Amino acid sequence: MPSREVASSLASTDTIELDGHGFETGDELVFRAVDGGALPSPLVAAQPYFAIWVSDSTFQVSESKGGPPIDLTTNGANVLVATPLPFDEVLEFYSRWVDGFLPAHLVPLKRDADGRYPVLVSGIVAELSAKKLQQLAGHSSVSVGEFELAAKAQLERWSKGVPLRDPAEGEANLSVASSLVITGHDSRGWGSRILP
């Protein structure tokens, strides 16, 4: 998750200074110290805290959402603050997103003998979730929309029983694959075998 170094964390005011922090009261935060630094006591690294907005450049933290500010007993040094990525929410979103493209006869999805959902569906949810989380963390500028369009096409083909890959994988298939690379057109109507 992306983190920023705070300018100060002062016991005298129980505030943390970070110009343009952008936190609203109730935002979840985590802290850690850079090598050689120290968190202000009693904050603990990687434990979730909740922001209390004071100004655009200062905030306080509480142990619970809507709780009172924590009494900082020592100053911090070289402290990083980050907002945790919403893993559960993103997975839930893309699970429901995938359900929205499946025809009624496939929903709810049937699990196999080991209790797993179809590998293609699980893979698409995982891939889309990973791309979105990378984007939220600032590690990728790739448009998630491209991945969503490719995923939708794969789900539509899969739900109709159209093979996603030619089982023969013979010379004819290699010829079509070469055509796809050169012209961008797949005469089989399958499109990309993988997300972009």
Question: How much strand?
Answer: 15-25%
Strand order of the largest sheet: 1-7-4-5-6-3-2
What is the average of the pLDDT values?
81
Helical fraction: 25-40%
Order of helices and strands: EEEEEEEHHHH
Number of helices: 4
How many individual β-strands? Answer: 7
Shape estimate = elongated
* Strand-pairing-aware structural class: alpha+beta
The span between the termini is 24 Å
Largest sheet: 7 strands, antiparallel
CA radius of gyration is: 24 Å
Note poorly predicted spans.
169-196
Outline the structure in words.
The chain is an alpha+beta fold and 196 residues long. 32% of the residues lie in helices and 18% in strands. Strands 1-7-4-5-6-3-2 form a 7-stranded antiparallel β-sheet, with no helix packed on it. The chain is elongated and about 65 Å long. Residues 169-196 have low confidence and may be disordered.
Quick synopsis:
This protein is an alpha+beta fold and 196 residues long. It has helices at 87-101, 119-136, 144-159, 171-183; strands at 3-5, 8-10, 15-17, 28-38, 49-53, 58-62, 77-82.
Descriptive labels:
single chain; 196 residues; alpha+beta; seven-stranded antiparallel β-sheet; 4 helices; 32% helix; disordered C terminus
